[in-house]
Structure formats: C-alpha cells, structure tokens
Specification:
Number of strands: 3
Shape: globular
Strand content: 5-15%
CATH class of the largest domain: Mainly Alpha
Helix content: 40-55%
Order of helices and strands: HHHHHHHHHEEEH
CATH architecture of the largest domain: Orthogonal Bundle
Strand order of the largest sheet: 1-2-3
Number of domains: 2
Distance between the termini: 47 Å
CATH superfamily of the largest domain: Ribonuclease III domain
Structural class: mainly alpha
Length: 227
C-alpha cells in the first residue's frame, strides 16, 4: 500500500484488514468497472444509522421530525464534502482522464460519494461497530445543536417528514439509468411511494441530485410546498 493510503488510514484512525476495499472506495466509475458506487450505497445507510445514534444521544429533547431535520443537515453533500476535504480524499480518488481534466478531484458530489464509500468499506472490513465508530470520529468536530433544525429542509427531508407524520413507509429511490460520458453523466432516479401507488422520476448530474429532483417532483404531485 502506498504511503498516501497509509497516511489516510492514520487520519481515519482505522487500519484496513483488506486494503483492496479502501482502494475500491476511492475508485470513481470513470476510472474502472470495479468502482465505488456499491460501497457508496452501503456507506450511505451506515452513515444515516450512525448519525441517528449520535443525535439520539446528544439531542434527547428533540422529537422525531426535528431529529430527522438535524440528520439531513449532517449527511447532506456540503457536510460530507467538508469532511472529505479535511481527509484530503481528493488527491487519492482514482479518476478517468476526462473526469480528472474537468476537475473531478474537487467536485463536491464525487468527494461526498467517496467518503460514503470509505464508510461502506470499513463496514465490510470490520462490521457495523467499527464503521459507526469511524462516523463518530469524523463528526467529532462537527457542531451538533438543537438550532440546526432551523435550516431549510431539502425536498427529500420534506417528503420523508410528510410520510412519517402519516405513519407511512419512506419513499424508495432507484437509479433507472445512467447516460453520458463518464465525466458528464446524467442520472435518472425513480421515487416511489408504494402505499399511494405513486412513481415519479428526477434527473441530475449525480445520484444525490437526481434523488432530490425526484423528491421535489413527488412533493409537487402531492401538492406539498418545500420549506
């Protein structure tokens, strides 16, 4: 393993038993077919669960909707991008030539996705407890307080809270297609609410952006204004 990857593990305070997982977590789809999107998917779930545990302990006075709002602030792209920058992930992500030339190493969506993939890699390497411990360390310097719910809701959070308020299951998001060159892709994502038999689609330059657009379309269909 290279010195730079060893240094990253030192910053993470975690040493991989299977270093190949870390390598994959830092591989963009423009570089190789063995890329990090599956690890990102896994890491996203681990991140949400670990952050939920943090908030449950730290903000005992908040109810479910407020906790969801704070969590949305903590797991949004901007927050993940900032943490990824502190870890210097941009210089370690393997990118295809086109993506590299277009500034992909600094693109917030790529850095945020890579961070989630690293969390997913730790989960596969050592299990949930170690992955959650990593998340807790990553958020050690992130301010968490009851005032965070005052921040505006994004479309996904708005839709989630609307459904939770009616005791309904959360929406399901599924990537339907990815088109375009590796450095300029368009994601098509479906948002489905099974209990209402509703399905809509959104498009974006990243999975996150497409999910947000799909949630916004669903809110419009339900005639719910976004905060």
């Amino acid at each position: 393993m290279s010195d730079s990857m060893l240094a990253l593990q030192s910053r993470l305070l975690y040493e991989f038993a299977k270093p190949a997982l870390l390598q994959q977590a830092l591989t963009h789809r423009s570089y190789s077919a063995d890329h990090n999107e599956r690890l990102e998917f896994l890491g996203d779930s681990v991140l949400n669960c670990a952050v939920s545990g943090l908030l449950f302990q730290a903000l005992g006075s908040l109810h479910e909707g407020e906790l969801s709002r704070v969590r949305a602030n903590l797991v949004k792209q901007d927050t993940l991008h900032g943490i990824a920058q502190e870890l210097h992930l941009g210089s370690l992500i393997r990118l295809g030539e086109g993506e590299l030339r277009s500034g992909g190493a600094k693109r917030p969506s790529i850095l945020a996705d890579a961070l989630e993939a690293v969390i997913g890699a730790v989960y596969l390497d050592a299990g949930f407890d170690q992955a959650a411990a990593l998340v807790h360390r990553l958020y050690d310097k992130v301010q968490i307080n009851p005032e965070m719910p005052a921040a505006g809701k994004d479309a996904k959070t708005e839709l989630q809270e609307w459904l939770q308020g009616r005791k309904m299951k959360l929406p399901q998001y599924e990537v339907m297609s990815i088109t375009g060159a590796a450095h300029r892709q368009t994601f098509e994502v479906q948002c489905a609410i099974g209990e209402l038999s509703l399905e809509v689609r959104g498009f974006g330059s990243s999975r996150r952006a497409a999910e947000q657009e799909a949630a916004g379309v669903m809110l419009k269909q339900l005639k719910i204004p976004v905060s």
